[in-house]
Amino acid sequence: MSREQAAAVMEQQAHACRNMDAALYADLLVRAAADARAGGVCAEAIADWVDAPAAAAVPLRLLGGVHALVLTGRAPELAQFYPSAGGAYAPDDAETCWAAFQEVVAAEHGALRGWLRRPPQTNEVGRANLLLAGLLYAVDQVGGLPVRLVELGASAGLNLRTDRFRVEAPDFAWGPADSPVRLPDAWRDRVPGWLRAGAEAYPELTVVERLGCDVTPLDPTSDDGGLALRAYVWPEHTARAARLAGALELARRLPVQITPVGAADFLAQLDPQPGTLTVVWHSVMRQYVPSAEWARVTAELDRLAATGMPFAHLLFEPYPVNGRHHFQLRARVGTGPERLLAEAHPHGLPAWAE
Length: 354
What we know:
Elements: H1 2-19, H2 23-37, H3 41-45, H4 58-71, H5 76-79, H6 94-107, H7 109-115, H8 128-141, E1 147-152, E2 166-169, E3 172-174, E4 182-183, H9 193-201, E5 207-213, H10 223-231, H11 238-253, E6 258-259, H12 263-268, E7 277-283, H13 291-305, E8 311-321, E9 324-333, E10 339-344, E11 351-352
Parallel strand pairs: 1-5, 1-7, 2-4, 5-6, 7-8
Antiparallel strand pairs: 2-3, 8-9, 9-10, 10-11
Helix pairs in contact: 1-2, 2-6, 4-10, 8-9
């Protein structure tokens, strides 16, 4: 029964990968699910995790571990199918690629068991597109105060440097022209008026403090942290990998300290500061926080908003709409109402506003 549940989660993830232009992972996961049901090498690899909840993302842990082996040269036969390692993949390669994948899982059982203990952490840089848009909106609402950036579930803290990224769309650009992180084609249709207004009023932002928390933070300046972040970017998503590479370069120039603690405990120690806008934001992390803790997070956010000092809460999270998840940017400034500003692809590019 446990194997069946694990296989079902793999099939669900395969469907999600196919819908997000990751045919390599989709094809591998379909075969890994069958292998898990049959008690093959994938079943052995995830034996300690068959009863884990779907939120543990065990299929992505397995894929990330194998990807790390590919990126470090320990799986050369498989690497020929991974665009992230200079290879290429086509549907006709499915069976040959799967055979190479099986061999890696069997040969690297010990390494993969260790990797499975670490949760997936993509720290998706594309989501900065929404976070920055929300930030410009909030700054415009309070008259351009200096900003204290606070991120919940910050992973490696890459998006705490969003003000140093370059965002581009037709007839629109914001951020340093020489930034190593470029977010092109940021908006699907028109750039919303509220964003244009904020960008024109504030071509630069003054960020006076950058704070973040994560239960298991990564150090993007270390070899291990950089590898983990690269391994969790799907190998066919080369544009995402390029954005990540730029963010890792920027992280080496601008260090940020991430506190290893949960979101509720972190916020309990936070207070707004006079003369600055305290912005608390998070992106696609709420589903990983237990409901009881999230209730505490909500209470802390309400406390911060009620202090009377400049405060904003920005979130880019999935919301159910007509049976599907829509990834939405929402903002609350002070004690005002929460406002839906935009929607976007789960990885942040492109965004759109109706």
